[in-house]
Amino acid sequence: MSDSNSSESHTQQQDTTHFGFKQVDKNQKVNMVKDVFQSVAAKYDIMNDLMSLGIHRLWKRYTIDCSGVRAGHNVLDLAGGTGDLTAKFSRIVGESGQVILADINDAMLKVGRDKLRNLGIVGNVDYVQANAEELPFPDNTFDIITIAFGLRNVTDKDKALASMYRVLKPGGRLLVLEFSKPNNELLNKVYDTYSFHLLPKIGQLVANDGDSYQYLAESIRMHPEQEVLKSIMDNAGFEQTTYHNLTGGIVALHRGFKF
Fold first, then answer.
1. CA-CA distance, 109 to 149, in Å (whole number)?
2. H helix and E strand count, the chain
3. Local structure of residue 149 (DSSP, 8 states)
4. Three-state SS at 182
5. Where are the beta strands (DSSP E) in 86-155?
6. Cα(149)–Cα(71) distance, rounded to whole angstroms?
């Protein structure tokens, strides 16, 4: 291959990214992901319960337990969606603390805000529409940042993690809860069958949108597996990075500190 052809191929690779199993223009992915979550927002909570048989609540509870959050802390619940983590953080940080529920998708943010207000959670929670790659907060703002089931939808994960690192306080910690790679081959096969054959059908039946849940299944497979994501966090500057597999590695909780 000539140098010019090689250069052209490299440029094309830089300008594209994956949307599920498809290659798309990087500039298009944000809007394509937005369309997915605009479509599923109204049924997001019920689909989470159906898809995980309610186990997602235990995964999130474990994330809270590992966060070290306490009264007076400033917390960023990034890609916070319908606010499950924000609700629990709000009660723990109390009146002297603050939780920001941030999401790039306005439909998800509205569902989360309405849900939390209906639960009487007001006063120490703010809502911000924000892109994880360019967080609109000053340096060294937050004691804790969580991003649950959101990082795989981010176009430039390196840029997003660098942005999170910037807005964390020294001594602060990041927790990334995300679907990952099962560590058992039989479980992996069962999970594949469920994800690609049953999940889109459930999405079509409950949310009238099988395509979005097909994308969600594909996006999980394209997300970096446990050790790779740990390395990406290390490269962003996080220290003492670790991960813990949940439900056989179907989900993993990664944690890193800023010192």
1. 15
2. 11, 9
3. S
4. coil
5. 98-103, 125-129, 142-148
6. 25
Residue with tokens 């603050």: 98
Residue with the larger pLDDT of the pair 206 and 91: 91
- Strand 74-78 with 98-103, pairing: parallel
What is the model's pLDDT at position 14?
64
Confidence of residue 125 (pLDDT cuts 50, 70, 90): very high
Could you tell me the two tokens for 52?
A: 């995980």
Where would I find the H helices in 98-139?
A: 106-118
Find the mean pLDDT for residues 63-71.
97
Q: Compute the distance between CA of residue 123 and CA of residue 125 in angstroms, rounded to an integer.
A: 6
- State the DSSP code for 144: E
Cα gap 250→44, rounded to integer Å: 19
Q: Output DSSP code: residue 155.
A: S
pLDDT (average), residues 40-44: 75
State which amino acid sits at residue 19.
F
- The β-bridge relationship of strands 142-148 and 22-25 is unpaired
**Strands 142-148 and 168-179, bridge-based pairing:** parallel
* 3-state per-residue secondary structure call for 5-68: HHHHHHHHHHHEEEECCEEEEHHHHHHHHHHHHHHHHHHHHHHHHHHHCCCHHHHHHHHHHHHC
Dihedral sign, CA of 212, 216, 222, 224? positive
Whole-prediction pTM: 0.87
Q: Read off the pLDDT of each residue in 38-65 and give the average, rounded to a whole number.
A: 86
Q: What token pair was written down for 92?
A: 């723990």
